[in-house]
Amino acid sequence: MNIAIDGPVGSGKSSIADLVAAKLGILHLDTGAMYRAYALHVLRSGADLTDGEAIARAGESADVRVQYADGAQKTMLGEEDVTGLIRTGEVSLAASAVSKWPAVRRRMVAAQRELAKTADMLIDGRDIGTNVLPDAPVKIFLTATAEERARRRYVQQMEKGDNTPYETVLAELNQRDRQDMSRETDPLRQAEDAVLLDTTNMTIDEVVAAIVGIVEDVYGKQ
Question: Which of 33, 81, 97, 143 suits a disulfide with 49, CB 3.0-4.6 Å?
Answer without folding.
Answer: 97
